Structure formats: structure tokens, C-alpha cells
Amino acid sequence: MEFDSTREERFVAKLIQDTKKKVIEWKDEPNDRLNLPNSERPISKVYTADINGTKVRIYEYEIKFYKDESNWEWVERIRLELFDNDGASLFQFPYDYSLYKLFNAVRKANASVDDFMKAFLNE
To answer: pLDDT for 57-74, tens place per residue?
Structure first.
């Protein structure tokens, strides 16, 4: 089955929109349950949601980027994936910069930043 990148872009855009409108509720979870390859390490909370009966999660992680065999640096990435009841990854969406927008929308919603700013500004 071929992956439709246009559909993926619309999917991520709708996730962002629905997150901002609070249509999708994301749960904060610790990252210690993630089973990542040795060259990856989680650096944020894991945010999960149930969308139409499918479990979705997004998180930030670091991966080693090798410049040569012995010279590497940590690079930050965002991963959006589907997972099963045991926490195993079923599908990872291809990396794209729009995932940062989604991740930031989720963090902002879960931290109630808009409510905090409204209260602070007496709006």
C-alpha cells in the first residue's frame, strides 16, 4: 500500500486544528515506557490520544547524527506514531517539520497556556 503524503499533511493539519480547538484531548504520560532503539532517547513527556478507536502518541526524542564513524552529535526529532495496547509501535509517520507544530500545539494545550495568559491579563 502506497503512502499518500498529501493525506498525511491534511491529517497532521487536522490534528493541529482539533488540538487547538480542544476537540482532541491528549494525555501526558512518562517517557520511561517507550522502547526506543539504543541510538535514540526520549527527551519529553509522551502525549497520547485515542482518535476514532486508534491510539496515537507524539513525543520528542534525540538520535545520534554521525558526521563520520567516531564523530556524532545528538539531534532532536519529533515522532508521531500509532501504537497498540501494549505500547508497541504499529506505525511511525514519516518525519516532517509540521510535527513540531503539532507537538507544540499539544504541549501548549496540555499546559493550559491560553488559560494562564487570559488569567494573567485579566481577560
So the answer is: 999 999 988 888 888 899
Q: Position of cell 484531548?
A: 25
d(CA 106, CA 123): 23
81 is in which domain, residue-wise? 5-112
Q: pLDDT for 18-43, tens place per residue? A: 999 999 999 999 998 888 888 899 99
Separation CA 54–CA 83 (nearest Å): 8
Closest CA to 60 of 89, 32, 31, 38: 31
**In angstroms, rounded to a whole number, what is the distance separating the alpha carbons of residues 114 and 107?**
11
CA-based nearest residue to 103, from 6, 19, 5, 3: 19
Which one, of 81, 106, 101, lies nearest residue 93 by Cα?
81
**Residue 68 domain-assigned (yes or no):** yes
Residue 18's contacts (CB-CB under 8 Å, 6 or more residues apart) are: 24
* Burial status of residue 49 (CB atoms within 10 A of its CB: 0-12, 13-18, 19 or more): middle
* Domains held by the chain: number: 1
pTM: 0.87
